[in-house]
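Weekly structure sync, notes
Attendees: PL (lead), two postdocs, one rotation student
Agenda item 3: pending single-chain targets
PL asked that the sequence for the first pending target be pasted directly into the notes so everyone works from the same version. It is reproduced below exactly as submitted, 399 residues in total.
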Amino acid sequence: MWEPINKDLLGGAQETRKSLTYWQDVWRRLRQNIMAMTGLIMIITIALLAVFGPMFSGFTYSEQNTALANIAPNIELTSIGDGDYVFVHNDYKLINATSEGELLGAPEIIEDNKTAKFILYNINGKEVKFDYSIAQKARTKGSKVTETNSDMKTKYDIYVDGQLIDKYDVQSIWNKTYLLGTDNLGRDVWTRVLYGARISLTVGLVASVVNLFIGVLYGGIAGYEGGKVDNIMMRIVDIINSVPLLLIVILLMVVIEPGLQTIILTIGLVYWVGMARLVRGQVLSLKEQEFVLAARALGVSKAKIVIKHLIPNAIGPIVVSMMMSIPSAIFTEAFLSFIGLGVSAPEASWGTLANDALGGIRSYPYQLIVPSVAIALTMFAFNFLGDGLRDALDPRLRK
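Predicted structure, written out during the meeting:
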């Protein structure tokens, strides 16, 4: 008696689009957000560089070469003939290099006359005299020729086998040996930034895990139980939130040594507070819904109601808040390391890199710019993704 219906007779009743689950719809809307996808790509790129980048850099974060200290990412090479090139350092010394921008190290010194202000080098059989007495004479006469003067060429002369060469005939090229330059101890800034990314992402991961397991459960229990239990649990949250973060770090430093473990412990103590309040508010509004009453009527335990019913229904605000807490934790770690309460030398953190660069900020600004840009890009990426998730997880914005 039953026959298959003729689909031609359905007309406008045909399915207009494929049915999507909630998370499939979230991913569809997230992909349409250009800024959110840009942030996601940036986060994945930073994570991959942090994990695998140091393996291919050729240097370690603590490897020092003081002969090549404070060299910028972009260098100017001066030809001394026969395919030999030198880089004139701001510290009044020559560094041997190739035409492609690869640094070969300090050449052999024949004589270093600090009285007459010249250094005599032997570079591939050529006698190269680096005369920096001009800078000394200008300084004696009261001229404003200083270490920060951008026109370094006015401070020296170079003689090759007694012949004065044209010091203005230079080629600007990218530093092939140290892509982002070196710091004041000759350590590779690029490698140290990558190691700093490891620390920052580790701190961000810890913040998200703490928020997920402590903040969500704590807030869920407080909101569902209500009454005196809720009042006591929230007063504990108020007490923790009233203590300044810096004071907690200082107190922990009295007990344990400063370092990454101190920062992780600090985040574990205080970063779940905001999430607990958010989840409590969500649970207070959800626990009066009919599906919770039905679960109670079926005899479902309180723990299962909180974990399997209430928290999944508040997952949107939870994911957004967790995503927004990561850049906050990264900035907190950078700030604590910057003021000397974070990771200690020779470990590399974006905060410690910025602190180390302060002494030469006028002469070598790239040392401060690099970690600052890394912090800014990471925080922008997480904020872009967080904003996109906030829109994508809101079912009211479904189109």
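Discussion points:
- The CA atoms of residues 186 and 281 lie 53 Å apart.
- The first helix runs from residue 22 to 32.
Action: rotation student to compare against the earlier draft before next sync.
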